[in-house]
Amino acid sequence: MTKLCRKIVQVNIRWKIFDKVSIFREFFRFIWERIIVCSAGRKPVRYRRLSRKTSSTPAMEEAEEYGVGGEDDPLTATCSGYDSDSDLVTLKISILGDCQIGKTSFVIKYVGDEQEKRCLQMKGLNLMDKTLVVRGARIAFRLWDVGGDHSSIDQIPIACKDAVAILFMFDLTSRSTLNNVISWYSEARKWNQTAIPILIGTKFDDFVQLPPDIQWSVVTQARAYAKAMKATLFFSSATHNINVNKIFKFILAKLFNLPWTVKRNLTIGEPIIDF
């Protein structure tokens, strides 16, 4: 059976399970809303375009729109916070990588400061939500940010189970965090064989200050790892909002076969995108 067929079968199975446990789902949503303070009747967020600051590095001009897309973008979306309506489609995304590489900053940049204040913290886990409206469909990203220390390894099974995508992250300025990606990948695949793998290099704004030969070496190794993992490679910066939203747009497009494609970029000194 082809991978596409397996994914279709998996989606059908999940929907059948969803129908059978809808009553329990509503109950747990009720409990969830009592645990986490929700802002009812909150107005939709208006997305803004980040101002382009003058910089000697061309890559810094790549700061993208904060949001999922513009009016003509097929992935146009708005954030509505936590939602309890039954028509909400929930997508679980796991985030793995070493400590101190910018995973949490990356997630906060995407969900926003208000959602970050309402995150659910567990031992070795941070859970945050972002609800989107895409072409009339309401979709909730449930982001499972796994701590990068040794004690967090035990959280990988629960974090990866049923995830539709797994983000494997590393610090572009720390070669050791890139080397450790393979271990994170091997462990995650024990519990989830079908999730979309994405390899993400963080702190691109610091990375472009490194000598060109070091940049070339890291890019070459990261591309080789991405190829071995059959993953799409993104270089990102939470500080400058580079490729943060684009990564989640990519996930939506892949999952729902939407007419949006990411452009490949292999230029040294710019945020790499390879697939």
Q: How does this model look, in words?
A:
This protein has 275 residues and is an alpha/beta fold. Helices cover 36% and strands 19% of the residues. The chain contains ten helices and eight strands. It has an eight-stranded mixed sheet, with helices on both faces. The longest helix is centred in the first third of the chain and has 18 residues, at 3-20. The chain is globular, with a radius of gyration of 18 Å. The protein starts with a helix and ends with a strand.
A few lines on this structure:
With 275 residues, the chain is of the alpha/beta class. It contains ten helices and eight strands.
How many strand segments? 8
Give the CA-CA distance, first to last residue: 23 Å
SS strand fraction: 15-25%
Shape: globular
Major β-sheet, in short? 8 strands, mixed
> Which structural class best describes the helix and strand composition?
alpha/beta
Task: Give helix and strand order, one letter per element, not per position.
Answer: HHEHHEEEHEHHEHHEHE
Secondary-structure map:
Blueprint: H1 3-20, H2 22-35, E1 89-97, H3 103-111, H4 113-117, E2 120-122, E3 125-134, E4 137-146, H5 156-160, E5 165-171, H6 175-179, H7 181-189, E6 196-202, H8 204-207, H9 212-229, E7 232-235, H10 244-256, E8 273-274
Parallel strand pairs: 1-4, 1-5, 5-6, 6-7
Antiparallel strand pairs: 2-3, 3-4, 7-8
Organism: Datura stramonium (Jimsonweed)
Keywords: Nucleotide-binding
Pfam family, one: Ras
